[in-house]
Amino acid sequence: MVEKELLIANPSGLHTRPAKKIVDEAKKFASEITIVKGTLSGNAKNLIKLMKLGITMGTAITIRCDGEDESVALEAIEALIAGLSE
User: Fold this and answer.
1) Within 4-63, where are the H helices?
2) Domain 2-83 belongs to what topology?
3) What pTM was computed for the model?
4) From CA 34, how far away is CA 48, in angstroms rounded?
5) 23 touches 48 (CB < 8 A)
6) Which sequence positions are flagged as catalytic?
7) 66 in Cβ contact with 32 (< 8 Å)
């Protein structure tokens, strides 16, 4: 398992459009990908679970990937989140 903590810089946080981009990217990988916010966590391949986390600008999250392509998955999700600007 690999994980990384990130700070959300997107001014609108992870509302529906950016969350959908994360879900679409996560579904490309075999690994289980979980996003953790405080004591809450959600499967990054499920839009509803991701939206229920209520991630806003300035929120610290942890991305956890576990599986055969975990390192590549973590890099891809991290790059996607870093590039969000909507």
Assistant:
1) 16-26, 47-51
2) Histidine-containing Protein; Chain: A; (3.30.1340)
3) 0.92
4) 13
5) no
6) 15
7) yes
